[in-house]
Prior knowledge:
Elements: H1 2-13, H2 30-43, H3 54-58, H4 60-68, E1 74-77, E2 80-83, H5 88-111, H6 117-143, H7 145-164, H8 172-200, H9 204-244, E3 260-264, E4 267-271, H10 283-303, H11 305-332, H12 339-387, H13 418-436, E5 437-438, E6 443-444
Helix pairs in contact: 5-6, 5-9, 6-9, 6-11, 7-10, 8-9, 8-12, 9-10, 9-12, 10-12, 11-12
Amino acid sequence: MNFLKFIQKELMHHQRKVPSSKTQVKPFDVETMLEEVKRAKKTRVKKFHGPDSLLYSAIYPVVFTMKVFGLAPYDFTADQLTPSNCCLVFTFAFMAIYCHIIYIVYLRFISLHRDRAILTVVETTKVTVNYLVAMYDLVLTIFTRKAFSRIWNAQQDFDERLSQLGYPREEAKTKIATWIFLFSQIIVWTAVNQTGMYAFDETWLFNTSYMCLYVGTAASAYKFFGMVSFLGQRFHQLNKIAKENLPPRVGYKSSRKGAYHTLIQHRAVFVPAVKLLSCLLDEKTIQELYNDLMLSSEALGSIYSWSLFFWLANLSIHTISNLYFIIDWVILNWTSMSWLLISNMWCWLVGFIMQLLALHIACDYTTTEANFMPVILIDWDARIVRRFPYDASDSFRTLHFLNRRLRFSAGGFFDIKLSLLTSLVKNYIQMYYDVIFNPENGGYTSYYDKW
């Protein structure tokens, strides 16, 4: 009994609290929430491989479009890009679609009766050339799947290594540029479709089918443009890192905070100061990273060498003919001119010029950034020689990089760069002046009057 009384007495001292029926709501603090979000972003591990990588996530809308057109038969296996037989179905499907489209277009051209026979010849030649280029792009995609996958994986390995060295890449600008590019292309091709339907009195299905051939070749050209631009961005970042890690000149203090160290093959020179505030790279690491990028760029240029030639030939033919038609119709048929037809030709011209500019700017930018690295490495060696003039046995080991110049060749005939585009524009202007504004006849004459 005494034991029961003791238990009862203890229970009276520790009475159970009845849970409240009301839910206890914690007040929302904006500052606390922002701090938690920032902390989560800092602790989140950035991925540089696989479908969740920063670059792939930024350009996924474009990649999806490429897959639909059969130009990206790839998939990820263990975070590595590999050829995909499932996605290859889209490639073969579009090969069949292109064959069906060109058959329909030929039937339409045969049934048309034009005032000038040369128009039928020119239009048939243009659509045939574009069809052959589109088919070549699809066949090339099939046979270079493994090579392209290696280039992509090497690029992702480069990003991961830079991140480990303390220089992680941010792809926010790439994501913004991707969406701007998509919207601009949607606007251009929608304008081409709508103006073409009304100008030529075509159905939406036929006009879209005809345009599909050109969208396919444009997508293939922009695929190359994107890969070259990504390599150019990495060359630019590596050049910036190399400049930051240059040894200080003799008689000048280093512009970097912390300590500085330079490795010269079998000897290390280390100047301690305070705790390192940033990751300092030696020349050998810079050379290895540069060599990796050069191998990827050279492999990409080798794959698309003939494609570049065919793209430029195709775009040049269409640009020249469209521009000539516009000038000829404006000058000779001013009173009875169809503005819808002129608008459609201008929309096509804008699409072709955008592709020409994209190819030339990307190649020129990447080659400029890649070929600037040897200058930085030579400057690096020169500073070491001035600093250690009595131990220059291993100096200027980077002279061979001056002979290793990055080039994007069009079938081995010429290199793609902006100076080439300017010379082409100059020749086009001279040709238009000679053909249309013929001084010998006292004014302009139409080239088609000879037919």
